[in-house]
Design brief:
80% of the residues lie in helices and 0% in strands. α10 packs parallel to α19. The protein has one domain: Sodium/glucose cotransporter (Up-down Bundle). It contains 20 helices and no strands. The model has no long low-confidence stretch (mean pLDDT 85). It is mainly α.
């Protein structure tokens, strides 16, 4: 146990050191929020992927691999497609336009793109972003508590406050630069951890053992790409829902701020392959860890969730205890916390920038001194973090049976449905109007709770909405509303 704590102490020390060093390079608000737009492709790609993956990868996806088997690879398909499309087609246009607009925030980009007479789109986008960021961050804080509980046997609430305190300190000290540098370190740690474990487990297995056949004996559904029962309509829709998770990478602000911050278009081209390769390897490794855990830790006829925890969320911790020494387990605890913290820090910076620059400065205090603006931004970051902490604690009381995977996906879907359609249409449709953008954001924002809490209860169709989840239908509604309102707006303008 002491060895694990020593490893964690060293890990937290590195993060705090990064925050301290980064703080020396903060000269103005642009440095604080986008690192002065000087990120290399390695830093940008690792930071984007570490931010995009979050704790759901090591706790949620490994658990999904253990519970549903090889059909969890549909998540990998969606993630790889989403990352490739965003870097290949979206990032170059977005980088060019944000440089032309001199934008350092997503709401700022939208305002400059549409050039409206009012600040409605600034205020709306900043508000929506902050709302879902707080929910998403609360899910990550929840994972922190579960990590300390599962791996170290610490009290859940102690774990929450420890992780929360560390991430807030280095964000407040070094801003985006500290976030990007720490993300690179954390992303590298996640990569090594995810690749190393399956390799070790495989080497320790007897040579005559077929994992595929053993899993088939435990439950034939584990080795069917469509899940138990094969290619039924319900399973196909479930697969589509898992693939659609990748849509979030096509416009989520916490990812796209990396495209604002990257040094040049040339760096985007190089960063693309780093990001895609990272996603393919780490996500596949997470599913494989879940499969290996199911094979080693359970037998035919046993209830997997009884042994591996709700949605298999304890599979990583249990597998590590079976095959790894304490010092290595300490590294893995750091890797899980890396996944969490790399997402929390990015989200808080993005939301803080939206409120500070696009709401407070542009709407109320346009001539404010930069030092005062920096102080306001840090206070905003602390307030948002505290709100997220409060939600995490509340959810832990009200929903003891919650799962990491779907808690995270809800927040992820909210951000994606609100912003992905707006960014996609603004980049590729010249006629897209401000009213259309507002319609996209509002409809996407409202669609997420509708499909999550109402559509699931529709007689006959509810089960299909439950399997599909909220990402795809919410994004489609947002795209449609944006298109329709733009056409109506253009027709009115032509008539006038």
């Amino acid at each position: 146990m002491e060895t694990k704590y020593i490893v964690l102490f060293l890990y937290f020390g590195v993060l705090l050191a990064i925050g301290l060093i980064a703080s020396k390079k903060i000269k103005n608000i642009s440095d604080y929020y986008v690192g002065g737009k000087k990120l290399s492709y390695w830093i940008a790609a690792f930071s984007a992927r570490a931010t995009g993956e979050s704790g759901w990868l090591l706790i949620g996806v490994t658990g999904m691999g253990a519970i549903i088997g090889v059909s969890a690879f549909w998540i990998v398909v969606g993630e790889v497609l989403g990352v490739f499309i965003s870097w290949q087609f979206m990032a170059p246009r977005f980088k060019k336009m944000t440089d032309e607009y001199k934008s350092i925030t997503i709401p700022g980009y939208l305002f400059n793109h549409f050039n409206p007479d009012t600040n409605i789109i600034r205020i709306l986008s900043a508000t929506a972003l902050s709302f879902f960021v707080v929910i998403y961050v609360s899910a990550q804080i929840d994972i922190t508590g579960k990590t300390f509980e599962s791996f170290l046997g610490l009290n859940y609430y102690s774990g929450i406050f420890i992780g929360f305190g560390i991430v807030v300190v280095y964000i407040l000290s070094g801003g985006f630069l500290a976030v990007a540098w720490s993300d690179f370190f954390q992303g590298f740690l996640m990569f090594i951890a995810l690749v190393f474990l399956p390799a070790v487990v495989y080497l320790k297995m007897p040579g005559d053992v077929s994992v595929f056949e053993e899993l088939k004996n435990i439950d034939p559904g584990l080795v069917n790409p469509w899940g138990p029962g094969g290619a039924t309509w319900l399973n196909i829709i479930s697969a589509v829902g898992l693939v659609s998770i990748g849509i979030g990478y096509m416009g989520s602000p916490q990812v796209y701020v990396r495209f604002i911050a990257i040094n040049s278009q040339a760096e985007i081209k190089k960063g693309k392959w780093v990001a895609v390769g990272y996603t393919l390897i780490t996500d596949s490794a997470a599913v494989i860890i879940g499969l290996l855990g199911r094979y080693i830790l359970t037998k035919s006829g046993q209830d997997a969730e009884t042994i591996l925890g709700n949605s298999g969320e304890n599979v990583l911790a249990m597998l590590l205890e079976t095959v790894m020494p304490a010092v290595i387990i300490g590294v893995y605890i750091a890797a899980v916390l890396s996944a969490v913290m790399s997402t929390v820090d990015s989200l808080l910076i993005v939301a803080s920038s939206a409120i500070t620059i696009d709401f407070y400065q542009q709407v109320f205090k346009q001539k404010i001194d930069e030092k005062k603006l920096m102080m306001f931004s840090k206070r905003t970051t602390l307030v948002l973090a505290t709100l997220a902490l409060s939600i995490a604690l509340t959810v832990s009381f009200l929903s003891p049976n919650r799962t990491v995977f779907w808690f995270v996906i809800f927040g992820w879907s909210g951000i994606a449905a609100t912003f992905c359609p707006v960014i996609i249409l603004s980049l590729f449709w010249h006629d897209y109007t401000e009213k259309g953008a507002i319609a996209s954001m509002v409809s996407g924002f409202l669609s997420v709770p509708f499909f999550k809490f109402i559509a699931n209860n529709i007689p006959g169709a509810g089960i299909y909405f439950e399997k599909l989840d909220v990402m795809l239908p919410a994004v489609l509604v947002s795209l449609l509303c944006g298109y329709v309102l733009t056409i109506i707006d253009k027709d009115k303008s032509s008539a006038n």
